[in-house]
Amino acid sequence: KQREETEKIDHGVKKKAERLHQIARILQDKAQSKLISVANKHWDSGALEVCFMLS
């Protein structure tokens, strides 16, 4: 009986870990998307031209 309870707990922990991993992945993807968007706006605002002038 104790082993069955341990297995249930273990299964529950694995399910929670999977869910947290999915959430972390979604957040990571959103952050990366925002970073790319900000970088594109930065370069579109003429920063690239300034970089070329400085080099």
**How would you spell out the order of helices and strands?**
H
Question: Which spans of ≥5 residues are poorly predicted at pLDDT below 50?
Answer: none
Percent in strands = under 5%
Oligomeric grouping of the chains = single chain
Q: What is the alpha-carbon Rg in Å? A: 23 Å
- End-to-end C-alpha gap: 72 Å
Key traits:
55 residues, rod-shaped, AAF-like
Overview of the molecule:
With 55 residues, the chain is an all-alpha fold. The chain has one domain. Helices cover 96% and strands 0% of the residues. The longest helix has 53 residues, at 2-54. The N and C termini lie far apart (72 Å).
In short:
One of its GO terms (biological process) is cellular response to oxidative stress. The chain is mainly alpha-helical. The protein has one helix spanning 2-54.
Give the secondary structure arrangement, pairings included.
Elements: H1 2-54
